[in-house]
Specification:
mainly alpha, two-stranded antiparallel sheet, 5 helices, 2 strands, 67% helix, globular
Length: 127
């Protein structure tokens, strides 16, 4: 899978082609997408909440960062939790989240992660 670089200057297509590719990978090859859009939205809401704490409520970033990293455990949990006999999320979604979470080390990277995730959701809705 294509490496995600949370820097739109290094990857001008981050919010366009890169996000579209990841939305396609997350959806999978079935007629019906493998991951329900509500799961994507639940995780996006968590990222948005952390972004709001950092940028709007002006909490010190070092207070927010551990909760960003904690998203890894939520992804792991969702990858093993089943609904209708299938995991809530697939490997592609877990990979996307892992790549993004590992790069968040500043408020700016958290903002770019939020925007990238927003773009993925937008493309995902079109699947």
């Amino acid at each position: 899978m294509k490496q995600i670089i949370l820097d739109y200057k290094k990857d001008p297509e981050l919010f366009n082609e890169t996000a579209r590719e990841w939305a396609t990978k997350i959806c999978g090859r079935n007629d019906k997408c493998e991951v329900k859009s509500t799961q994507l939205r639940n995780f996006y809401d968590k990222v948005l909440e952390l972004y709001d704490r950092s940028e709007i409520k002006k909490e010190p970033f070092e207070e927010v960062l551990p909760f960003v990293k904690m998203l890894n455990s939520k992804v792991e949990y969702a990858s093993h939790r089943k609904s209708e006999g299938k995991p809530l999320i697939n490997k592609a979604f877990a990979e996307m989240m892992g790549q993004c979470i590992s790069q968040v080390d500043s408020p700016e990277k958290l903002r770019v992660f939020k925007l990238f995730f927003e773009a993925v959701i937008g493309f995902y809705k079109g699947k």
